[in-house]
Structures are given as C-alpha cells and as structure tokens.
Design brief:
Elements (H helix, E strand, L loop, with lengths): L5 H5 L7 H15 L7 H14 L2 H12 L8 H5 L18 E8 H6 L2 E11 L8 E5 L8 E6 L6 E6 L8 E6 L8 E11 L9 E4 L5 E2 L2 E2 L2 E8 L4 E4 L2 E8 L1 H4 L3 E6 L2 E6 L10 E3 L12 E7 L5
Parallel strand pairs: 1-11, 13-17
Antiparallel strand pairs: 2-7, 3-6, 4-5, 8-11, 9-10, 12-13, 14-15, 16-17
C-alpha cells in the first residue's frame, strides 16, 4: 500500500498555505490532464489530493488522521463501551450505518449512575444465505467495487469523484436468485437486550456508542448508539452540573425552620433564611453533579395550598 501523502502528490510541504496548495494543484493539473496526453490515474490522484487538502476543514481532519495512526482523534464513548464490542478493529472496514436507540433516563438515575437495560430489535445475518441475500453475480457497472468514478467540472478544474454504484446499491454484486428465507434481504430480526452502567451526569441528547452491537450490513455489524432522553421526575431537574429540586410548600410548612429534600445521596434538610423569599432558590454548595467540576443543589420554593 502506498504511503505517499497528499502533500507529496501535490509537491508541497505540510505547512504550505492554501494559496500555495491551489497554485501547485493548477500546475500539476495542467501537466497531467488526460486531454493533453497526461496519465488519467495520476490526474485522479492529484484531484483527490486537492479535494482534501485544498479544503481547510477536510485538511484539518486529514492532518489529524495522518498524525494519529489509530484514527481521527479520541472518542470517549467508543473507549468507554469498548468492553461490549470485543476486540478493537485493526483493519479498515466499510462504513456500516449505526443503529440509534433512544433511552429515557431520569435525573435521579443520571445522578446515581444506575444500571440500565436496553431492549431493541437487531438485524442478524440470515442463516440460510449467510447474509448474501441469495445467489449473486459481480456488478457489471462497478466491477465489484460498489462505487464508480466520474468526472466533475470542466477545463483544468476537472476532479475525479467516487459515487455509489446505482446498479448494485454499493454492494458490488447483484442478486440472480433471492433467498427464500429472507427474501433477498440477507438479514433476520431478533429482539436483544444489553445492560450497562450509566455514567454519572448523563445529559439530554448525549450519545453513547457500543461497538459492533448494531445491525448486520454488507458483511459487518454496525455500532449501537444510545441517545439519552433526560426526564424530569420526582420534582428533580438537571441544569448543567446543578441539581434542581422543586419543593411545594403548604401553610404548615411555612411555619417550619427547614424544608426536606429527598437527595439521591440521602434525605437532607435545608434551613429557611430569616427573610423568606420564594423568588430566590435555596443553595447548598457541592451537592450537585460532579462532572468536570462540583455542581450545587438548588431548592426552588413554591407555595401551594387551598384557601378557606
């Protein structure tokens, strides 16, 4: 496998400016343009290199991946749940769609970091056809690659782009006889469950990934992605690292010196101030969440009673 970098292909240094990269691409494109007798494969490599490092965002991603042989940066979710996915993949594989499952988590569960069980429908490879969907022949349009190369643009700004083959849908082969068990789908659905310990302080909209526990697709299993849906419950809310408790008081409660709070760490009482003001919540330091800093507990006071 070639180790030539995109910078080497364009003949520039890794510290080159975007203008220098653009000028180098123009020079190389004119020199190797197929319409002027150039090598199409070389021109394709030049176009691919410029498409990446000629774009600032793509260049940053390319540089990060180039300098990190294990991938494009640290992913805490993959590391945290790697125990569920078996050994880490050491070989590059085709991209497989993730299976996203929503999970309701109460504020108290988020604080305590409880064990959660997820039940979900998962697609496995069909036992009859081993996931192939039936008898197949190599796609005649893409020659089994799953993609085709097309020219985009005109003049010396032509770029060679790869697009998914529309004949085989990116699979590299077409069915000649459908499997009678899965009707050509190549998969069968089963209900599965997985149990894991919820991290302390999980927040609304947060994602956690479990490697290789998703659906079967084109010879590989995708990842299971869990999306947290934080639910307010038992009068508790979460705001950043702060834990919010809504306390509803009646007339008898107003004559007391403190209010009870069923804190996840244990029942506690918070003293009323000398000046009773329901517009200002009571604050108890360091009794909130402990994610990247110590949050506080805030007790909001609401007076609620029937007259007469």
């Amino acid at each position: 496998m070639s180790t030539e970098s995109y910078y080497d292909i364009l003949g520039v240094s890794e510290t080159a400016t975007q203008d220098e990269i653009k000028k180098a691409y123009r020079k190389k494109a004119v020199e190797h343009h197929p319409d002027k007798g150039g090598d199409e494969q070389v021109f394709k490599k030049i176009s691919e290199a410029y498409d990446t490092v000629g774009d600032e965002n793509k260049r940053r991603q390319y540089d990060a991946q180039k300098n990190n042989p294990f991938g494009g940066g640290f992913n805490p979710f993959e590391d945290f749940f790697s125990q569920f996915g078996g050994r880490q993949q050491r070989q590059q594989r085709p991209q497989v769609p993730d299976k996203v499952v929503n999970l309701d988590v109460t504020v108290i569960e988020s604080y305590l970091g409880v064990d959660k069980t997820i039940n979900y429908s998962r697609k496995h490879a069909c036992n009859t056809c081993s996931g192939s969907g039936g008898d197949r022949n190599t796609c005649s349009k893409c020659n089994g690659q799953g993609f085709v190369t097309v020219r985009m643009g005109n003049g010396m700004f032509i770029q060679m782009m790869q697009q998914m083959c529309d004949l085989c849908g990116g699979q590299g082969s077409v069915l000649t006889r459908r499997c009678g068990t899965c009707n050509g789908q190549g998969t069968r659905s089963e209900m599965e469950s997985v149990t894991f310990k919820l991290p302390h302080g999980s927040d609304n909209g947060q994602f956690y990934r479990m490697n290789d526990l998703g659906d079967y697709h084109n010879g590989f299993y995708g990842n299971l992605v869990i999306k947290v849906n934080l639910v307010n419950s038992d009068n508790f809310e979460k705001m950043g690292n702060d834990l919010i408790y809504n306390s509803y008081l009646n007339l008898d409660d107003l004559n007391k010196n403190s209010v009870g709070v069923p804190h996840p760490d244990g029942e506690m009482r918070v003293n009323f101030p000398l000046e009773f003001d329901t517009s200002k919540p009571l604050r108890v330091k360091s009794k909130g969440f402990k994610n990247g800093g110590q949050g506080d507990l805030y007790v909001k006071l609401f007076v609620k009673f029937k007259r007469g």
